[in-house]
Structures are given as structure tokens and as C-alpha cells.
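agent> step 3/5: call structure_predict on target 'Galactose mutarotase' (Harpegnathos saltator).
agent> reason: downstream docking stage needs a structural representation; sequence fetched in step 2, passing through unchanged.
tool.input:
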Amino acid sequence: MSCGNILITEDGFGFVPRYTLTNKHKAIVRLISWGASIQSIKIPNRDGKLVDVVLGFDDMEGYLKDRYMGSIIGRVANRISDGLMSLNNVIYPLSINDETGKDHFNGGVVAFDNVNWQSQIVNNRVVKYTWTDDNQLHINIRATATKSTPVNVTSYCLFNLAGHGAGPKELRKHVLTVNADNWTFTDVQNKLPTGVISPVDCTVYELRLPTQLNRRRLFKVPGGGYNHNLCINSPNYWCYRFHARILHPASGRFLEVYSNHPGLQVSTANELPDPERVNICNLQADSFLTVNMKLKTTEIEIRKSEAIYGKGGLPYYRHGGFALTPQNYPNAVNIEHFPSCVLHPGKVYIHDMTYKFGVLFEDENF
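tool.output (status=ok):
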């Protein structure tokens, strides 16, 4: 079927349906009902060549094994400290599922990303995707509640504008701009905001001018790469506005992000396997000198981190992609002066966001 100039077709993707949206320029978005996920986006470079720029998988096994790829995240995206939330003076325990074993992360063990959504091509929706002829993907999220509850729903998608399998080498050529004067200061150890809103001036979070995500830049970021919430400039928290722009100069492809939410989680896929890191196992020590920290061993087995294999069997490694994820501030339910994330009965939660793709030609300025 078609909606306007957009051709929509349906096929199977394992045990779930997949929808392909094709605009008049043959640019394509593919969606699957599992996690209401973006499985593929094919957009042109300055020569008109279409390339898939979304990291993901060719089958359901990949999405079942590696959560969050391209999916809707909720009911509360990001972290809630200690798996506890305070609401109306009552403390509620939540599932603990982050990598540290301490916090509630991205909606918990059973969340919006790892369930099969009922999908149909109609106007009534909880999550609505709209693909346009000018290569804009609009995502409109709505929610209601029967009881007061925290809500922070978003779409998490890893991109590489050189192509989904182009890897860290091409990611480091991307140039990023973020519309943010401040960031939520984060504890390096637990990855949670302290509650302090800190200026980006003279820090690695100063991204208001186009900044290349090269190796030197990422090395300076605590944790070895970005995974931080920036506070998007706006006259009020909840107005729809420009969040960020990122360019891959060689192809000319760029992506702009817009949203009506106050924060943007900037990520450089630090969680993917690191090809430059080695794991040392089967360690047997003869002696250990605490003075000079020298270790004598009879056996050291060195093994590189294993890759995640994505579409086309291509390996996905650390810094092989980026995510620009609009959201409320992390742990907002427990930090009183952060924008409220509580949805009350009779109210409607609204998150409108847009991924706007384009091409910059060589004689144009970014």
C-alpha cells in the first residue's frame, strides 16, 4: 500500500512482521514489530549511492541476543539509581539490570525493547513512524497511565553515516555539533548524574561548534568515549527544537536530530566489543612483588574481545557507531530539580522526535 508518495510493503522477519517504507527518491526505512525497532535506513551520499546507516541484524536471533539495537526504550530510558524510585513519598523497588548490578536501566528486565508490539498501518498509535520524501523520519510517541508513574520513552539507534559496518575508522571522521550550553555532571564510577547542571565551557562536552570525533577527542572523554546527557538549549524544557547535527564529510551524509525533550544522550558505542583490548585469563603467578608491581607468570593466555556480527556478517566494534538519543535527564525521578518525568492519570505523555537526513555537497558549508 502507499501513503502519499511513500510506498509501504510488509514481509516477515523471523516470527515478527517487517515494514519497508520507500519514498520517491528510493530512500528506505525498515521497521520490525519487535521493540518497535528501526532495522535499516538506506540514504544516499552526494553521488546518489544508497547505503544502510543503521547498525542492526539480518535476523531475529541478533535482536534477541543484543538488546536495544534500533528499539523503543522505556518505560524509563537510561538509569534509575540503586533500582529505587521515590514517588508521592513512597519508595518503589525496581528490577536491577545494568552492567554494574546496581541500577535500573532502560526500563528493566522486561521493557519496551524486548517485547513484540502490535503493529498496523493506521493513524491511531502509541508509537508512530512517518517517513517523508525529504528523508525525514518522524517518531511520535504517546502514553497514558492509570496511576502516576515515571515515563521517559525514546528511540535508541546506532548510526554510522559511512555505512553500518564501516567501523571505528569512519566514525572518527564524523563531525558533531550539539545545541547545549550545559550537561548533567555525571559520576564516572556509577554513570549517574550527581544533580549538578554544569557548563560545557572548556570541557570535552563543549560541542557547540563542529567537533571531529577523532581518536584524540574520544580519549579525553572520561570512559574513553561519549555516553553522556547534554542539556539542550531552549526557552522551556518541553518545546520541539534542534538538538544536534552530525556530518560524515567523505560521503556528504548528515543527520540532524530534533525533539521536544530536554536532554540528549550522546553515545559513541563504547559498549560494543573493543578490538584493541585484550582479556588475560588462565593466569598463574609464581610471585607478586608489591613494591614494583612486577608479576611473573608461567602462563598468560591473551584473547581479543569478540565482535558482535551485524548485517551482512560485518563485525561491530567499540566506536563503530554513534547514537543521539533525545530524552529527559537520567534519574530524573529521584532528583527533584530535574524536569519532572512523572505522568499522572488523565494526562498524555508526548515525545515527538525527528531524524532528518541530508547531503552536503562539496561547495556547501556545514
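agent> step 4/5: record observation. The CA atoms of residues 275 and 305 lie 6 Å apart.
agent> proceeding.
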